[in-house]
C-alpha cells in the first residue's frame, strides 16, 4: 500500500469515517477537514499517525502533512468520501492550539485575533498569498540567471535574454495581479481591479504633466495599486446601487474606471508614494541605525508573526523596498526565523529518545531547510513550547549577522537555502554564513536549556 493511501485510510477512520466528513480542503501543507460530528473525531489518534506532522484546531481540523504529500492524501480522501477537494490559502486560519493552551476556546482565539490591525494584515495577506508560487518561481529564475551571468556567461546572449524574460516578466506586471486580487478581496470586479493596477504602472504616465509635475510610472508601487483597487471596488458597489439593472454592465464599470483614473492620478498615486517612502525610509533607517540590535529584534520576533499568519502582510513591504532601492535588506534578516528553528529541531532530534518525535522532525527538516517552516513549527517547536523560544533566540543571532553585513536580495522568494540564489552580487556566502550561525545558535540554545526529553512524552 502506498504511503498516501495508508495515511488517507487512517486519517479518515479517526475522523469518524467517510460519512462524518462535511467538507475537504487542502493548501500547501495542510489537509483541512470539517467534520459533521466533532465528538466522533479522535484528535489524539490523528496526531500519532506515522506521517502526520501536527494538527491545528480551528474552524476546520487542519492536519499538517507537508508539501506534495498533502495533495496526494487529499485526493485519496476525496475518492473515499466522494467529497471534492477545494484549494485554500495557507494562512486562511491562524488560530492554533497545543498542550498548555487547552483551556482557551476557539471563540477566545477568534476574538483575540479580530483586532483591527490583525484583520487589516489578514486582508493584505489574502491579496498576496495566491501570488506567492509565481513570485517564488520568478524570483528564483531571476536569481539563478544572475548566478549564471556572474559565472562568466555573456549577459547579452540569447539564453540570458530568455531567462531574464521568464524571471523578471512577472515583476513588471505584478501591479495588475495585485489589483485583481485586491478588488476581489474588497468585493469589486477583479478585471476593474486589474485596470486600476495598470493606472499605476502604465508607461504612458511619463508623458503626462499634472500641476507642473511630470508623473512617474510605478510611483506609489503596490501600495498605490492597492489604494486604487480598493477605491474602484468601493466606487463600483456604490454606483451599482443607483444604476438601473439594464444599464449596469455599461454604466457602472465605465463610471468607476473613469472616476478612479482621475482620483488615482491626483490623489491615490501621490498618497501611495508618500506611504511607500515612509515605510522604506523608516525600515532602512532602523536597519542602518540599529544595526546589530535591529537585526536581533526583527529576526527574533518573526516566528511568532509566522504562527499567526500575519507575516504574509509584509509582502508589499518587501516589494516596495525592491522597487524603491533595488534590493531588499529586510528579507535576509527575517529568513533567519526559519533557520533558528531548523537548528532547534536538530538539537531535539539528537537529544530525544521519542521515536515519533524523531520521525516528525525527520519529515519536517528537509522542507524547513528549503524555507517551508510550518511542519516544524506546528509539529515540533510550538507544541513543545520552550524550543520555540530558543529557536527565536537562534534566529535573532543570525538576523544580527545579516544586519551587520547589510545583506540584501534582488527579489523575494522562500527563505532557507534557496534564498541564497536571490542575494546581491558577492553576498551568497555571507547569507549562507548567517544561516549557519542561526542553525548553530538555535541548536546550542535548545540543547543547553530549551529541551528535556520528558517534554516529549505527550507528542
Automatic annotation (TrEMBL):
GO molecular function, a single term: kinase activity
Membrane topology of the entry: Multi-pass membrane protein
GO biological process, one term: phosphoenolpyruvate-dependent sugar phosphotransferase system
Keywords: Cell membrane, Kinase, Membrane, Phosphotransferase system, Sugar transport, Transferase, Transmembrane, Transmembrane helix, Transport
Annotated TM spans: 120-142, 162-180, 192-212, 218-235, 247-269, 289-310, 330-350, 403-422, 428-451
InterPro entries xrefs: Glu_permease_IIB, PTrfase_EIIB_Cys, PTS_EIIC, PTS_EIIC_1, PTS_IIB_1, PTS_Sugar-Specific_Components
Subcellular location: Cell membrane
UniProt superkingdom: Bacteria
Pfam family, one: PTS_EIIC
Active site: 27
Domain PTS EIIB type-1: 5-87
Cellular component GO terms held in the UniProt record: plasma membrane
PTS EIIC type-1 domain boundaries: 122-459
UniProt protein name: PTS system IIB component, Glc family (TC 4.A.1)/PTS system IIC component, Glc family (TC 4.A.1)
Amino acid at each position: 500500500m502506498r504511503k498516501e493511501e495508508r495515511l488517507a485510510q487512517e486519517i479518515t477512520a479517526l475522523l469518524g469515517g467517510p460519512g462524518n466528513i462535511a467538507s475537504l480542503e487542502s493548501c500547501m501543507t495542510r489537509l483541512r477537514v470539517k467534520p459533521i460530528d466533532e465528538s466522533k473525531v479522535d484528535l489524539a489518534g490523528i496526531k500519532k499517525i506515522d506521517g502526520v506532522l501536527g494538527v491545528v484546531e480551528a474552524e476546520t481540523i487542519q492536519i499538517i502533512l507537508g508539501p506534495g504529500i498533502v495533495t496526494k492524501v487529499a485526493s485519496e480522501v476525496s475518492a473515499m468520501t466522494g467529497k471534492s477537494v477545494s484549494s485554500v490559502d495557507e494562512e486562511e486560519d491562524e488560530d492554533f492550539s497545543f498542550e498548555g493552551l487547552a483551556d482557551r476556546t476557539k471563540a477566545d482565539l477568534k476574538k483575540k485575533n479580530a483586532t483591527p490591525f490583525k484583520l487589516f494584515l489578514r486582508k493584505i495577506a489574502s491579496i498576496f498569498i495566491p501570488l506567492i508560487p509565481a513570485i517564488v518561481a520568478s524570483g528564483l529564475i531571476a536569481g539563478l540567471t544572475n548566478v549564471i551571468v556572474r559565472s562568466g556567461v555573456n549577459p547579452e546572449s540569447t539564453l540570458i535574454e530568455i531567462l531574464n524574460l521568464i524571471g523578471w516578466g512577472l515583476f513588471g506586471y505584478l501591479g495588475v495581479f495585485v489589483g485583481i486580487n485586491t478588488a476581489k478581496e474588497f468585493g469589486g470586479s477583479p478585471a476593474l481591479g486589474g485596470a486600476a493596477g495598470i493606472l499605476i504602472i502604465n508607461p504612458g504616465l511619463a508623458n503626462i504633466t499634472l500641476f507642473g509635475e511630470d508623473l512617474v510610472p510605478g510611483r506609489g508601487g503596490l501600495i498605490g495599486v492597492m489604494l486604487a483597487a480598493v477605491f474602484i471596488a468601493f466606487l463600483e458597489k456604490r454606483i451599482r446601487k443607483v444604476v438601473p439593472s439594464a444599464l449596469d454592465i455599461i454604466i457602472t464599470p465605465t463610471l468607476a474606471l473613469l472616476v478612479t483614473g482621475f482620483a488615482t492620478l491626483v490623489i491615490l498615486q501621490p498618497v501611495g508614494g508618500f506611504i511607500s517612502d515612509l515605510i522604506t525610509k523608516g525600515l532602512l533607517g532602523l536597519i542602518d541605525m540599529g544595526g546589530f540590535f535591529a537585526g536581533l529584534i526583527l529576526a527574533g520576533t518573526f516566528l511568532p508573526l509566522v504562527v499567526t499568519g500575519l507575516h504574509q502582510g509584509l509582502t508589499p513591504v518587501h516589494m516596495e523596498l525592491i522597487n524603491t532601492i533595488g534590493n531588499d535588506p529586510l528579507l535576509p534578516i527575517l529568513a533567519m526565523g526559519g533557520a533558528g528553528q531548523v537548528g532547534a529541531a536538530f538539537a531535539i532530534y539528537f537529544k530525544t529518545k521519542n521515536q515519533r518525535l524523531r520521525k516528525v522532525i525527520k519529515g519536517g527538516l528537509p522542507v524547513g531547510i528549503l524555507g517551508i517552516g510550518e511542519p516544524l513549527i506546528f509539529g515540533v517547536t510550538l507544541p513543545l513550547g520552550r524550543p520555540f523560544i530558543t529557536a527565536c533566540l537562534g534566529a535573532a543571532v543570525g538576523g544580527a549577522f545579516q544586519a551587520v553585513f547589510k545583506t540584501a536580495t534582488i527579489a523575494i522568494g522562500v527563505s532557507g537555502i534557496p534564498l541564497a540564489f536571490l542575494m546581491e552580487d558577492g553576498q551568497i556566502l555571507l547569507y549562507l554564513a548567517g544561516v549557519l550561525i542561526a542553525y548553530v545558535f538555535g541548536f546550542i540554545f535548545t540543547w543547553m536549556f530549551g529541551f528535556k526529553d520528558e517534554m516529549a512524552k505527550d507528542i
